[in-house]
Write a structure and sequence with these properties.
98 residues, 6-stranded antiparallel barrel
Length: 98
């Protein structure tokens, strides 16, 4: 199973459903684009298993501005004492949609 590890800056989206995200680096996005057709579902979402420190969670990457973004739940972000602008290291692997 393919796994990626990268660091990225946490940013806050103040939309109707506010959330924190990390933008996936371009080199990882290149890999993801190669497999996107076989794993994505509705709107180009890619199901992944994410890990930040000891916290793990199932989620989906969102396509945004030609890249992908990883949503970071408050249940993951708060125990790690992360806020807007902080840099975090995460691991991703593709998960089954089932």
């Amino acid at each position: 199973m393919e796994m990626w590890e990268f660091s990225g800056e946490l940013w806050y989206w103040r939309g109707p459903a506010p959330y924190y995200f990390i933008t996936v680096p371009e080199d990882v996005c290149v890999d993801l684009r190669l497999i996107a057709n076989s794993v994505s579902y509705g709107w180009g979402m890619i199901p992944v298993h994410a890990q930040l420190g000891e916290r793990e969670w199932p989620t989906s990457l969102f396509p945004k501005d030609g890249r992908y973004v990883l949503p970071v739940r408050d249940s993951v972000r708060k125990p790690a004492a992360l806020d807007d602008g902080d840099v975090a290291t995460v691991q991703l692997s593709i998960r089954s949609r089932a």
